[in-house]
TrEMBL record:
Keywords, alphabetical: Cytoplasm, Kinase, Magnesium, Metal-binding, Phosphotransferase system, Pyruvate, Sugar transport, Transferase, Transport
Domain PTS EIIA type-1 span(s) in chain numbering: 24-128
Subcellular location: Cytoplasm
Enzyme category, top tier: transferase
Name under which the protein is recorded: phosphoenolpyruvate--protein phosphotransferase
SUPFAM superfamilies in UniProt: Duplicated hybrid motif, Enzyme I of the PEP:sugar phosphotransferase system HPr-binding (sub)domain, HPr-like, Phosphoenolpyruvate/pyruvate domain, Phosphohistidine domain
PROSITE patterns referenced in this protein's UniProt entry, alphabetically: PTS_EIIA_TYPE_1, PTS_EIIA_TYPE_1_HIS, PTS_HPR_DOM, PTS_HPR_HIS
Boundaries of every HPr domain copy: 169-257
Record-listed E.C. numbers: 2.7.3.9
Length: 842
């Protein structure tokens, strides 16, 4: 029987261009399918045949048409036009419309495209060209709308091929229950669910399909919450694989909110700039003087044509294997050093380097004669474009991670041809932008500061720079490219200024300031292990906020007298099953062992819809920061709480352990938890009473502190959450960062109320939030009645040094005055007027 044919006509007036001549490796490599392009003479895109519009891109630069025979035809106007976000495009159709051959679909303004440097070359590809093969196509030359362009021939039905091969097939439907749809984490859950099966599972939506094993491909489908998707599975145990995918899709989870650690506000410099100064956004505060060095990303020359499919496949496999090894080593090193944020960033790159969809696209290009480097770059760039095209800022942000993995693989492929960055020690590093994989080289070189033309204060590199205390300015602008390497500059990452030509007087002052900071840091380190006692003899305990045993060892080395906050959620995140009681006990015991006789306050699990756990289905919440989280969640899922408390009670010696409850709002939550704790202790034969404390991080807890203190053994203020709840400002909203200040008088008054309630019942009050790490805040906290400060390990020596230079009487007077002031700025000015030597970097 002759296979059915479908004739496609020219969709624009212009010149026919072969697909391989399109200056875009994705189309040229036929990664999207087979087809042709037309360089148009006018600005109207017409339908090449009759069919139904199954997708119209939000930017109106592309649409997909499905014919009655099932052929899916993508029409894409211009190259990189998704970046125009609809400017210059006007749709004449909508999704679901039936159209006839020759009917206008989209109008576009070629002048707008040209103004933005975007070619208007328009491409037609048959997305499912494996099922609808092109048997004839028009040759190069001029063509008019309606003229014959392509002839498609239907391929053999898939079912027949499957039957001949004896493979199982299955199909079904699922309604996506993940809040926000298939964004990063739900896509990863689905991919993990089908990895255990050899069958191939595909998910279909709006004429597009994606391999369920590829989290990146799933994200590009643009699946929303409540969307109904079709699934097909082919291969051994296809039914089981299909069921696993359906369960993963229909699991009710909330949208993950991955908040970066609080960053300085993206504000303009506080003072007017001189002609030789450049303003930037503070990504990591500090002050540095040094000679500039440029950081270039050397990946070697990329040749399009390969040296044979077998050789190029082997080269790509070897490069990927090497990169994955490097990433695994980086994750292990970050975990050893207790750098949880850094470990998480590198772990995300591991999944991208193993993405089967990118690998398949690269291998297809290699099969078409391309080099491994050309193929990998094309595949990665195609996925980056797809993520940006979703319009989802979270997914678009992941494109930077993809570019990082792309660059790492290209460096491996280049081998000796890749120029490894050689940085002089203590340089001020200049770069267009940086990626996380660049950071180890910067650490090894001991750079004095980092300045980038682009980037933002919440980028992964900014997070890493803050963790290492490297002064960093970002978003300085294109003028940074004009600054020559070898220039002596001053980086003031406390006022957001890069001074590119400081005069002798300014240089002398900068050298003196650098030396002052060095001496102060050395002195603080030298006395880090001495007690923190005020000048009039009041003892203040200085503890550390940690998450891992490695953190504990670092804290001890820097003079921590205890652990004031052990964050336990790190043990629960980024895994598919909950940690067992034995795993938890071993982790907590390792922390106690590392503290060498010091005590630790262990906070019970503080997660919720804002920190999603795949093994704890939670309903979607419009405002997860105010939802089922912290102690509320643990009391609602008592098995979680019971297992964690049993693990804590098993730690030896038990006297070294205290327990703290997060997100407490009233007395009932404490009494209910105490009842569970006492019951478990009795079951385990433990007569020793473990201290149970409360985090003061909700306004209600501060207001009711006198009631809570009847049952709680101690209080510790979580100033980060208390500030956001008191001021009704989301702490992950960059637009509010400049106003989200813990020294706001409303926050200080709540803390004063908590201190009064604690004192009424003889309970001690600590602070474990960011204010405990702020030298300017320390005197006020002492004046309010705080007797324990739990800070980041790196700043413990400086915090102790501040405590030793103040008196309790001075601090109490300053606190009383601060409570009467009307703004954080006025309060900071008052503190610095009282103690002129005090500075945020002291």
């Amino acid at each position: 029987m002759t296979a059915p044919q479908l004739n496609l006509s020219a969709f624009a007036n212009g010149t026919v261009v072969p697909l391989e001549a399109v200056p875009d490796p994705v189309f040229a490599g036929r990664l999207m399918g087979d087809g042709l392009a037309i360089d148009p003479r006018d600005g109207v895109l017409h339908a090449p045949c009759a069919g139904r519009i199954v997708q119209l891109h939000a930017s109106r630069h592309a649409c997909t048409l499905e014919t009655a025979s099932g052929a899916r035809v993508l029409l894409h106007i211009g190259l990189d036009t998704v970046l125009l976000q609809g400017e210059g495009f006007s749709a004449r159709i909508a999704e679901g419309d039936s159209v006839q051959a020759g009917q206008p679909l989209i109008e576009f303004d070629a002048a707008v495209l040209e103004r933005h440097g975007k070619p208007s070359l328009t491409v037609l590809v048959v997305e499912n060209s494996d099922e609808h093969r092109i048997s004839w196509r028009a040759s190069d030359g001029s063509i008019a709308v309606g003229a014959a362009l392509l002839t498609l021939v239907g391929a053999e039905p898939v079912a027949a091929a499957v039957e001949a091969g004896g493979d199982e097939t299955a199909s079904g439907w699922a309604v996506v229950a993940h809040a926000g749809g298939l964004h990063a984490r739900p896509s990863a859950l689905v991919a993990n669910a089908v990895k255990a099966f050899t069958a191939t599972v595909e998910i279909h939506l709006h004429g597009k399909r994606a391999n369920a094993r590829s989290a990146t491909a799933l994200m590009t489908l643009g699946v929303g919450e409540g969307d109904e998707v079709q699934l097909t599975a082919v291969g051994a145990r296809a039914g089981d694989a299909l069921e696993a995918a359906i369960v993963a899709l229909e699991t009710v989870t909330a949208a993950a909110v991955h908040a970066a650690p609080a960053a300085p506000a993206a504000a303009a410099p506080a003072r007017e700039l001189a002609p030789h100064q450049l303003g930037g956004v503070i990504a990591s505060p500090g002050f540095a003087l040094g000679t500039t060095a440029r950081f270039e990303h050397g990946v070697g020359e990329i040749h399009e044509q390969g040296e044979g499919e077998i050789l190029e496949r082997r080269a790509l496999d070897a490069a990927l294997h090497a990169v994955i090894g490097d990433i695994e080593a980086a994750v292990a090193e970050a975990e050893r050093r207790g750098l949880a944020d850094q470990a998480g960033i590198y772990a995300a790159h591991h999944a991208l380097a193993e993405d089967p969809e990118m690998l398949a696209q690269a291998q297809a290009l290699i099969g078409a004669g391309k080099s491994a480097a050309f193929a990998w770059r094309a595949a990665a760039q195609a996925q980056c474009e797809a993520l940006v095209a979703t319009g989802n800022p979270l997914l678009a942000g992941r494109a930077n991670d993809l570019r990082d993995v792309e660059r790492q693989v290209l460096r491996k492929l280049a081998g000796d041809a890749a120029s490894a960055p050689e940085l002089p020690p203590h340089a001020v590093l200049l770069a267009d932008d940086l990626l996380p994989s660049d950071f180890p080289a910067l650490e090894r070189a001991g750079v004095a500061a980092i300045v980038t033309a682009h980037g933002g204060p919440t980028s992964h590199v900014a997070i890493l720079a803050r963790a290492q205390g490297i002064p960093t300015l970002v978003a300085v602008g294109p003028q940074l490219a004009e600054l020559a390497a070898g220039t002596l500059v001053i980086v003031d990452a406390e006022h957001g200024v890069l001074d590119t030509a400081p005069g002798e007087e300014r240089l002398a002052a900068a050298r003196a300031e650098v030396e002052r900071r060095r001496v102060a840091r050395a002195a603080a380190l030298a006395s880090a292990h001495a007690a923190a006692t005020t000048a009039d003899g009041v003892r203040i305990e200085i503890a550390a906020n940690i998450a891992t045993p490695a953190d504990a060892r670092e804290a001890v080395k820097l003079g921590a007298e205890a652990v004031g906050l052990l964050r336990t959620e790190l043990l629960f995140l980024d895994r598919t099953t909950a940690p067992t009681e034995a795993e938890q006990r071993a982790d907590y015991q390792a922390v106690i062992d590392a503290l060498e006789g010091r005590s630790a306050i262990i906070r019970t699990l503080d997660v919720g819809a804002d920190k999603e756990l795949p093994y704890i289905p939670m309903p979607a919440e419009e405002n997860p920061a105010l939802g089922l989280r912290g102690i509320r969640l643990c009391l609602a899922r008592e098995a979680l709480l019971t297992e964690q408390l049993r693990a804590i009670l098993a730690v030896k010696p038990l006297a070294a352990v205290k327990i703290m409850l997060p997100m407490v709002t009233d007395l009932a939550e404490i009494t209910e938890t105490r009842a569970v704790l006492d019951r478990l202790a009795a079951e385990m034969g433990i007569s020793e009473r473990v201290q149970l404390g409360v985090m003061i991080e909700t306004p209600s807890a501060a207001v009711l502190a006198d009631q809570l203190a009847r049952e709680a053994d101690f209080f510790s203020v979580g100033t980060n959450d208390l500030t956001q709840y008191a001021l009704c400002m989301d702490r992950v909203n960059a637009a509010l960062a400049a106003r989200l200040d813990g020294l706001h008088p409303a926050v200080l008054r709540l803390m004063a109320q908590a201190a009064e309630g604690a004192a009424r019942h003889g309970r001690w009050l600590g602070v474990c939030g960011a204010m405990a790490s702020d030298p300017v805040a320390v005197p006020l906290l002492i004046g309010l009645g705080v007797t324990e400060l739990s800070a980041s390990p790196a700043v413990i020596p400086e915090i102790k040094a501040v405590v030793r230079r103040v008196t309790l009487a001075e601090c109490q007077a300053a606190a009383r005055a601060a409570l009467q002031l009307s703004s954080p700025e006025a309060i900071r000015a008052h503190v610095k007027a009282t103690w002129p030597w005090l500075d945020a970097s002291a």
